[in-house]
Amino acid sequence: MGVKQAVLAGVMATGLLLSAAEAQTALAAGGLVEAAAPVQEAGAGLSHSALKGLTYMAAITASDVAVLSVASGGVAAGTALTLFSTAASLTVYAVNDFVWGRYEASVARQEDDPSFDLQEEFWLTSDKFFTYTLSTLWIKAIKLASLYAYTVSAGTSLVATSVSVLLNAGYFYANNILWDYHDKSAVPPPAPAPQPLVAPPEVAVLPGTLSNS
Q1: pTM reported for the whole predicted model
Q2: Residue 75 belongs to what domain range?
Q3: Residue 122 to residue 132: CA distance in whole angstroms
Q4: Selection from 108, 103, 145, 165 nearest residue 128 by Cα
Q5: How confident is the model at residue 112 (pLDDT cuts 50, 70, 90)?
């Protein structure tokens, strides 16, 4: 096994172990959120978050394979680097989205209008992206180091990683906003509150107004 292959194997093994540890910790935190909001809302489950993560990963995988293959000088190296980052990122994405989904569910129960609002979705997605980015900084650092091990060029590694990060940010926003639009559109509007029945007013009958039969 060559030095580059050994470096990549070590990087991937370390990354997967870190992903498992982070997932276990975050799931525990998510459990606390779920205990505070036991009612299951549309789009708030872990399986739903994983599905959102899959559509996001499909987009960034295709993009990263292209970018990292060009930077590393080969499809095999670019694909290997992409698979590592994708597997680690999917775990973090699903847990991050799940915890935010529980928060959204608790807020939705307090709102009278659950309809889709683009401006509100943009800022909520920004909050999600911020926590997701902080949670995946180590993945980006490992990707950068691994790419440098292949290219031995700091400039190429930095440019390729930066392009990958920018493209993935755009995919993140588009994926999350489209999913939230789909989820809120699938929820039927609340039924109008029943109106109280009003009894007809009683008609007073004055003496002497009734006709004799």
Answers
A1: 0.65
A2: 3-186
A3: 15
A4: 103
A5: low
92 Cα distance to chain centroid: 10
| Residue where the block lists tokens 């194997």 | 9
User: How many Cβ atoms are within 10 Å of 89's Cβ, its own excluded?
Assistant: 25
Residues 23-58 pLDDT 10s: 444 444 444 344 434 434 444 577 888 889 889 989
The answer to whether residue 193 sits within a structural domain is no
SS3 169: helix
End-to-end Cα spacing for the chain: 116
Q: Is residue 36 part of a domain?
A: yes
Residue 32: in which H helix or E strand, if any?
A: helix 3-36
Residue type for 180, please? Answer: D
Structural domain tally of the chain?
1
As a whole-number percent, the residues of the chain with pLDDT over 70 amount to 63
